[in-house]
Amino acid sequence: MVAAASVVVAVGAVTGMMSAVGDGGGSDRARPGVTASPRLQPLPAVPSPSPSATKSPFPEAGWSEEEKENEKAKASPEPSASRTEQKRRTTSVPTRLYRHPDSRVLDWVRANPDDPRRAVIESRIADQPAAVWFADPSPDSLTSRVRAVAAGGAAQGRTPVLVPYAIPDRDCGGHSQGGAPDLGAYDAWIDRFAAGLGTGEVIVILEPDSIAQSGCLSAGQRADRFASLARAGRVLKGANPRARVYYDAGHSGWNAPEKQAGWLRQAGAASAASSDGIFSNVSNFHGTADEIAYDRAVLEALGGPPGLGAVIDTSRNGAGAPADGEWCDPAGRKVGRAPTLSTGEAGIDGYLWVKLPGESDGCKGAPGTFTPSYAYDLAR
């Protein structure tokens, strides 16, 4: 069996996303971008920790955070050690995530009030908070666009999730265009991104695939990229000390934890000055239990200051990864656990929807476009 990389790039490849790409007019509206990822040579599979998945006392998605916490309280009047630790770790962070008002799924819901699939898609996907991606390397309106999303979250007392995605050679193979022309331009881009973060709580998913998929770079190129990523983390946290910055750990079917941790350490992920921990499973399908075990192994190998945690993309992992390693709109997948910053799992800071369910990888619809039939299959 082979496992493909969870690559996400802006034009010509595999994953769609809610995206705040520039429109050349300085608009502050974060709009979906047509995205996709390249058909890469599959990577050798690394055996996953594959713990037995425990049955959740509530459905994978569709429950509000308040409902889930009430159910947990009924089932366990006394808080467990892990839950107490998690609560202590996130005391200063609003427990509710921000849903940005612009996305392709919301556009579809508003435009199709009589579609019989609408109610399911709206309640299971459109009503959930999802990440906002910034994939345009042009910096002209970047600060104002980031500020609009950060301010929207702050106004509601909720935490927005932002994804800067402009590292040069971001698909590590040149299969598609996109990204800053060089690291100097990228550093300047990050400065402008950071300037829009404001002073409220924000979560930053820093450059998906930038570390896990760096094996195609030369040692020198990799060192330069990692130095730029470490700088990015310092700049983001320096601009807004309440920003929580997470670094790319790939997923449980990709690199071994020790290898991934070594690269993460070089990229600044073990430094409190630049990092709050790691993220995994972006745009992929691996089950939550596998990701929890993998992320804990990576964090243990990473070392670093106490308090480093992990966030997991659960947007499409409700049925786990396909046995055949298929990555392009595979059949039988389901939305995963609803986004939350209250996981009840030690070291796991949140379950996030980084990839927006229903945006095609390029097989059930044009790459990056919202495909209602695919969304309905995922949601029902």
From TrEMBL:
<keyword id="KW-0136">Cellulose degradation</keyword>
<dbReference type="InterPro" id="IPR036434">
    <property type="entry name" value="Beta_cellobiohydrolase_sf"/>
</dbReference>
<dbReference type="GO" id="GO:0016787">
    <property type="term" value="F:hydrolase activity"/>
</dbReference>
<dbReference type="Pfam" id="PF01341">
    <property type="entry name" value="Glyco_hydro_6"/>
</dbReference>
<comment type="similarity">
    <text>Belongs to the glycosyl hydrolase family 6.</text>
</comment>
<keyword id="KW-1015">Disulfide bond</keyword>
<dbReference type="InterPro" id="IPR016288">
    <property type="entry name" value="Beta_cellobiohydrolase"/>
</dbReference>
<keyword id="KW-0378">Hydrolase</keyword>
<feature type="region of interest" description="Disordered">
    <location>
        <begin position="19"/>
        <end position="96"/>
    </location>
</feature>
<feature type="active site" description="Proton donor">
    <location>
        <position position="209"/>
    </location>
</feature>
<keyword id="KW-0732">Signal</keyword>
<dbReference type="InterPro" id="IPR001524">
    <property type="entry name" value="Glyco_hydro_6_CS"/>
</dbReference>
<keyword id="KW-0624">Polysaccharide degradation</keyword>
<protein>
    <recommendedName>
        <fullName>Glucanase</fullName>
        <ecNumber>3.2.1.-</ecNumber>
    </recommendedName>
</protein>
<keyword id="KW-0326">Glycosidase</keyword>
<keyword id="KW-0119">Carbohydrate metabolism</keyword>
